[in-house]
Write a structure and sequence with these properties.
CATH topology of the domain at 89-179 and 293-299: D-Maltodextrin-Binding Protein, domain 2
Order of helices and strands: EHEHEEEHEHEHEEHHEEEHHH
Distance between the termini: 56 Å
CATH class of the domain at 89-179 and 293-299: Alpha Beta
Helix content: 25-40%
Number of helices: 10
CATH superfamily of the domain at 89-179 and 293-299: Periplasmic binding protein-like II
Largest sheet: 5 strands, mixed
Radius of gyration: 19 Å
Oligomer: single chain
């Protein structure tokens, strides 16, 4: 397929570049030429972080979306979801890591700055010391390997993509429920750019799209985000996708969970139904309790 070179905006982190380069390679396999354009965002290390974006979506995406939109009012759409990497969380520990989360000694220092992961660690291992952990994936892993921490919880997808998954122990996604969309990639384009939509469309993976649409719809219905202890993941069960949804109190003292079959014809409706089932059980009270920052929760 010939045509104008596609310019793909990406953050400059190693993981973001890996993911963008993967998309470039997949496009290249289909005869589409693409090049990367690095955009510095508020989420990059050392960048100033405006208060309105702290711990929110805009921390990593606002500048990218602004650059993509270019002042045009038509809006943006997610045109393709390439195949998804493993969505599970994993724990990296010092040494061989064979014992995983259960093998850590009481009082071990485990790093994460995710409100969701903190709450889940409170549920499974309330005897651990949770330490705020920021920086890119490599930095976090190196802090464990250098002995500064006994362990860290990260997305298995990022570890695999950067070749840092040696010794990583995956956590059960039906219990330690991942973040919505974890492990997935999305290609966002201008809504009125039909030429680009046609060129990236073949990269769309049906299962990845259905899964992420259900997970994102559940999150939106629950009004969740980075500051809410919320997990949502679609898992294949006997050939069908099932949405696992879990909302927790920040300290892990209470949680609500559901399992909902996903209708591939309308995955968003399945996500909304799952969310409403938890809201009917009182999830709103837990969500309102999710306002503290990760640092505040870790200190409790």
């Amino acid at each position: 397929m010939s045509g104008k070179t596609l310019r793909i905006g990406t953050r400059g982190s190693a993981l973001a570049l890996w993911q963008a380069e993967r998309v470039c390679a997949r496009l290249g396999e289909r005869g589409v030429t693409a090049e990367l354009v690095i955009v510095r965002t508020s989420g990059d290390e050392g960048a100033p972080r405006p208060a309105q974006y702290v711990e929110g979506k805009g921390l990593f995406t606002k500048e990218l979306e602004d650059a993509l939109q270019g002042g045009r009012p038509k809006g943006l759409v997610l045109a393709a979801f390439p195949e998804r990497e493993d969505p599970r969380d994993a724990i990296i520990t010092r040494g061989s890591g064979a014992g995983g989360l259960g093998g850590l000694l009481s009082g071990s220092r485990v790093g994460t700055s995710s409100i969701r992961r903190i709450a889940l660690l409170r549920v499974h291992r309330p005897d651990l010391e949770i330490v705020p952990l920021r920086g890119n994936v490599t930095t976090r892993v190196n802090r464990v390997r250098a002995g500064e921490l006994d362990g860290a919880v990260l997305a298995l997808a990022g570890l695999r993509r950067l070749g840092l998954d040696a010794g990583a122990q995956p956590l059960d996604p039906t219990d330690f429920v991942p973040a919505p969309g974890q492990g997935a990639l999305a290609i966002e384009i201008r809504a009125d750019d039909l030429v680009t939509a046609e060129r990236v469309g073949p990269l769309d993976d049906r299962e990845a799209r259905v899964s992420v649409e259900a997970e994102r719809a559940a999150m939106a219905e629950l009004e969740g985000g980075c500051r809410v202890p919320l997990g949502a993941v679609c898992l294949a069960v006997e050939g069908r996708l099932v949405l696992h949804l879990r909302v927790l109190a920040p300290d892990g003292s209470r949680s609500l969970a559901s399992k909902t079959p996903v209708d591939a014809r309308d995955p968003a409706a399945s996500g909304v139904a799952a969310a409403r089932s938890l809201l009917a059980q009182g999830a709103a009270a837990l969500i309102r309790g999710g306002a503290p920052t990760a640092n505040e929760v870790a200190r409790r």
